[in-house]
Amino acid sequence: MADDAYLFLLPDRHPRLGAALAAVGLLECAETPAVHGWLQAHDVSATSEQVRVLPSEAQTLIPPDAERLPVPLSEEETLRVQQECAPQSITHVETELLEFRDLTQDWQALVHRALTAGIPAARIAQLTGLDPQEVGRLSV
């Protein structure tokens, strides 16, 4: 086996890149002392969203300041990593956007119902992630 992929730590505030190590399923290399030591050295667990994996042919996408570790993969593991790293189809993403729209379409009515039920505006903002000023405007 050669170095077929790279594990790397995604820097904070960087767009998601590659696949989360946990998302590709168990990789033999993840059980090696080298990977365990690398994870411990960076104080992260293998299940962290920050621990990403990319096929070696995509290594140029890894941010220059990211900590990285080349790892060998079996043929089947390489295929799983490539599939998990493949971009989602536009149709799939558009479907997610439509679902989001449907879920959020009546947010004002929901907030109004919550206010009417006696839930404080600050608590509604905390639970929904909405701007507290936006919730406050509906309480008037």
In short:
The protein contains six helices and four strands.
Task: Explain this structure.
18% of the residues are buried. This protein has 140 residues and is of the alpha+beta class. The protein starts with a strand and ends with a helix. The radius of gyration is 21 Å and the shape is elongated. 43% of the residues lie in helices and 14% in strands. The model has no long low-confidence stretch (mean pLDDT 88). It has a four-stranded antiparallel sheet with strand order 2-3-1-4. It has two domains: 3-87, no CATH class; 91-138, no CATH class.
Offer a few descriptive terms.
2 domains; four-stranded antiparallel β-sheet; 6 helices
Task: Annotate the secondary structure layout.
Blueprint: E1 3-9, E2 19-20, H1 33-41, E3 51-55, E4 68-72, H2 75-85, H3 90-104, H4 107-116, H5 121-128, H6 132-138
Antiparallel strand pairs: 1-3, 1-4, 2-3
Silhouette: elongated
Helix and strand content put the structural class at: alpha+beta
Radius of gyration, in angstroms, nearest whole number: 21 Å
- Mean pLDDT across all amino acids: 88
* Helix residue percentage: 40-55%
Report how far the terminal alpha carbons are from each other.
Answer: 66 Å
* Total domain units: 2
Give the strand order, joined by hyphens, for the main sheet: 2-3-1-4
Number of helices: 6
* N-to-C SSE string, H for helix and E for strand: EEHEEHHHHH
What is the beta-strand fraction? 5-15%
